[in-house]
Design a protein that fits this description.
The protein is of the alpha+beta class. The chain is 16% helix and 35% strand. Strand 7 and strand 8 form a beta hairpin.
């Protein structure tokens, strides 16, 4: 599975995104039988770690084709739910729902943060003016989970796994490696997630930084938070997940070949040209990161 690494290095993460706007509660009303997060006996829970990701899409076949071609993911079906595997490691799920009529919502990823208490997280969300999109619910093999929106509308889930959590390890190509929250107010967002998920919050004081805060648990960087530029009025607060790739330029070219769209091309000023953002053919956005130990020197 690879070796663990800690701050300021990024832990291997699972990603998250957001649901189809107001249809979120109905999308989760009758989910398939979810598999356990890990089959390793005795794994501990790691509160604060992102432990699972799902993609809600209006074209499951197109999504599977894209991610198989881009990352080499393999899929197995459980009823109408597609479980994505990277080298036999389950890392995500996908299911199909129609887009709500009259809405601009598009397919997006959503994911879950490990928590010791789903109920406590729910109470914190309500107290801090977030929203409950899917109330806490227990699943026999998975555990207890819920889906929320923070005060700016960025959507995330929490999960108390019944089988323990996947251990921390250095992401391999095709694994989730980094996730960043884009927000209008990084300080307030950091305090929200501190209260909900119990993070330690580390302010990033480095020059030319790409994030304002780091969310930390168990000695690992779990996510970063960045304030959206006031000049970018079209950008909406959201979580942006990244997958490790062997070569970002080749992956961008492959994404275009597979019908995707390049949202942010590799630039020398962004991680030395080792990072990019693309959208799959249905519009779901995902980041690409070519890992190098040199990337984390001098701040994140």
């Amino acid at each position: 599975m690879g070796r663990p690494f800690s701050i300021p290095r990024f832990a291997a993460l699972l990603a998250l995104g957001i649901l189809f706007g107001p249809s979120a509660p109905s999308a989760l009303a009758a989910p398939p039988e979810f598999p356990p997060l890990t089959s390793v006996s005795g794994n501990p829970r790691l509160p604060g770690k992102f432990v699972w990701a799902d993609l809600v899409t209006d074209n499951l076949v197109a999504a599977q084709t894209f991610y198989t071609g881009l990352f080499g993911w393999r899929f197995t079906m459980v009823d109408e739910y597609a479980i994505g595997l990277n080298e036999e490691r389950p890392i995500c799920g996908m299911f199909q729902r129609p887009r709500p009529k009259g809405q601009t919502a598009q397919p997006r990823w959503f994911g879950y943060i490990s928590t010791a208490s789903v109920g406590k997280a729910e109470r914190a969300v309500k107290r801090l003016r977030g929203r409950v999109l899917a109330a806490p619910k227990k699943f026999p093999e998975r555990g207890e989970q819920a889906v929320f929106a923070d005060p700016e509308g960025a959507v995330f889930g929490v999960l108390k796994s019944s089988s323990g959590d996947p251990e921390d390890f250095l992401a391999e190509p095709g694994d989730w490696i980094w996730v960043q929250l884009l927000t209008r107010d990084a300080r307030k967002a950091a305090e929200f997630y501190r209260a909900v998920a119990g993070y330690d919050v580390v302010q990033n004081a480095a020059n030319n930084r790409l994030s304002d805060y780091v969310l930390v648990s168990e000695g690992y960087a779990r996510a970063t938070i960045r304030t959206i530029s006031s000049e970018n009025s079209q950008a909406q607060p959201t979580w942006l997940p990244f997958v490790r790739v062997k070569n970002v330029a080749e992956s961008v070219a492959k994404a275009k070949e597979l019908g995707g769209e390049v949202r942010i091309a590799p630039k020398p000023e962004l991680f030395d040209g080792k990072v990019a953002v693309v959208a799959d053919p249905t519009g779901a956005v995902i980041g690409l990161l070519e890992w190098s130990h040199e990337l984390v020197k001098g701040g994140s």
